[in-house]
Amino acid sequence: MLKLFSGTANPLLSREVSGLLKIPLSKAVVVRFDNSEVKVSVNEKVKDALCVVIQPTSNPTDTHLMELFYFADALKRGGAKEIIAIIPYFGYSRQNREHLPGEAVSANVVIRFLETIGINAVYTVNLHDEGTEGIFSITFKNLSAFNILGKEVAHFLKNNKNLEEVAIVSPDQGGVERAQNFAEKFFHTNKVDIAVIEKRRNLNVPHKSQALNLFGKVRNKTCILVDDIITSGGTLVHAADFCLKRGAKRVLACVVHHDFSPGAADTLSKSKIEKIFMSNTIALKPNQKLPQLKEISIAPLLAQEINNLI
């Protein structure tokens, strides 16, 4: 018996998954008190059930994490046989190493909480660094939204999609493997050249980076910038400008998570990026919508994985 629960971080995505599976969302109540405390009540019998909770841990990250922990505790107390957390966007994933002396490695801390609270398996989508998978001692699966996003980009380009006309660009050195994986799925071949933006990040100033150089052929091509997360939008905009200065015909972007900081939507809307293809791992606020943004649902991806559990 499978019970499907939704946290409050992205209820629309949960409802889409529920509709595709034809499994109703199980009853639960999340109460937020004036002193900022949260209470989660599961109002279903879950004894010996396989329970799946869909909850991105996006902004406000700490609030959504605590809510997920309370769901796990309530389900465990109710006698759930197994608890699976589907975390489409895994908060703190970029804090997966000690960048400066004395820093906490926050991703490790979150993983230990998930394991200790009684969660048996974690599914996420395009984790920032796949190496983080090795930290988990419980079942972990990292899904990719690039197949779904890539099909939308291909449809947008229609016939303009061969190796000579399109360049896949990584906006920083750390995303080369990610861009390569996207390119192989997009072109159905591994004989793909990747252009790379050399970037310098200021570790003392959050969301601050500078594009220094571009390596690869982009002249007279449609450039597709591939990344996993947009926060301020600065990295993507600088990369697009660099491509255009090097002779690119136009620039598109394909990014999984829109973890927008204040001002990101305005920055992106004023950029020269023609179209930005993104998934709905994170619920988009009304003031974060922009004309260039094309949001594609990952509900079919999640529904397929959950269906495999039944």
Automatic annotation (TrEMBL):
Domain Phosphoribosyltransferase: 146-258
Keywords: ATP-binding, Kinase, Magnesium, Metal-binding, Nucleotide biosynthesis, Nucleotide-binding, Transferase
Gene Ontology MF terms in the entry: ATP binding; kinase activity; magnesium ion binding; ribose phosphate diphosphokinase activity
Lineage top rank: taxon: Bacteria
Enzyme Commission (EC) number: 2.7.6.1
Cellular component terms per the entry's GO annotation: cytoplasm; ribose phosphate diphosphokinase complex
PANTHER family hit by this protein: RIBOSE-PHOSPHATE DIPHOSPHOKINASE FAMILY MEMBER, RIBOSE-PHOSPHATE PYROPHOSPHOKINASE 2
Protein name: ribose-phosphate diphosphokinase
NCBIfam families referenced in this protein's UniProt entry, alphabetically: ribP_PPkin (TIGR01251)
Domain Ribose-phosphate pyrophosphokinase N-terminal: residue ranges: 2-118
Catalyzed reactions per annotation: D-ribose 5-phosphate + ATP = 5-phospho-alpha-D-ribose 1-diphosphate + AMP + H(+)
UniProt xrefs under InterPro entries: Pribosyltran_N, PRTase-like, PRTase_dom, Rib-P_diPkinase
GO biological process: 5-phosphoribose 1-diphosphate biosynthetic process; purine nucleotide biosynthetic process
